[in-house]
Amino acid sequence: MTLDPAQLAELETTLGADTLHELLVAYREDLATRLAQLRTATDPEAIRHHAHGLRSGAASFGAAALAAAARDVELGGGSLAAVEHAASAVDAALGARLA
């Protein structure tokens, strides 16, 4: 599972369905932006910064595979391909949930 259903249910209980929906829409847009920024980053500090942003957002919504892949890049290992693959799965899950 790319998004943790229990974490999303807890957020929905805490925030309400409408607010969670709005946050997921915003997160989907942010995911695309941060991924594009990571793709074009060449400076190690910029790479770490953008990977950290991807990691934080992913963790907020229970996207563990994306958070782990971004963490690996943030720490100087890992691959952009792994981040891309995980981000694609998260985007698909968000699209299905928001439909």
TrEMBL record:
Domain HPt: 22-94
The organism's taxonomic lineage, starting at the top: Bacteria, Bacillati, Actinomycetota, Thermoleophilia, Solirubrobacterales
SUPFAM superfamilies for this protein: Histidine-containing phosphotransfer domain, HPT domain
Membrane-crossing segments per the record: none
Organism (species): Solirubrobacter pauli
Highest taxon of source: Bacteria
Biological-process GO terms, alphabetical: phosphorelay signal transduction system
Name used for this protein in its record: Hpt domain-containing protein
